[in-house]
Amino acid sequence: MIFNFKTLYDGDTCGHFGQYGGRFAPKGIFSFQTSYDGDRNGHFGQYGGRFAPEMLIPALEELENVYIRAKKDREFEREFMSYLTGFAGRPTPLTFAANLTRRLGGAKIYLKNEGLNLSGAHKITHCIGQAMLAKRMGKKRLIAETGAGQHGKAVATVAAKFGFECTVYMGERDIERQRPNVFWMQRLGAKVKPVSFGTKTLKDATNAALKDWITNVHDSHYLLGSTVGPHPFPSINRDFQSVVGMEVEEQVKKIEGKLPNYLIACVGGGSNSMGLFYRFLDKKSVRLVGVEAGGRGVSKKGGHAVRFSGGKKGVVEGYKSVFLQDRYGNLSPTHSVSAGLDYPGIGPQLAHLKNEGRVQFTYATDREVLAAFSLLAKTEGIICALESAHAVAFALKLAPTLSKNKIIVVNLSGAGDKDIFIIAEALKDKEWIEFLKGKSHL
Ligand SMILES: Cc1ncc(COP(=O)(O)O)c(C=O)c1O
Question: Yes or no: is domain 94-120+242-426 CATH 1.10.10.10?
Answer without folding.
Answer: no
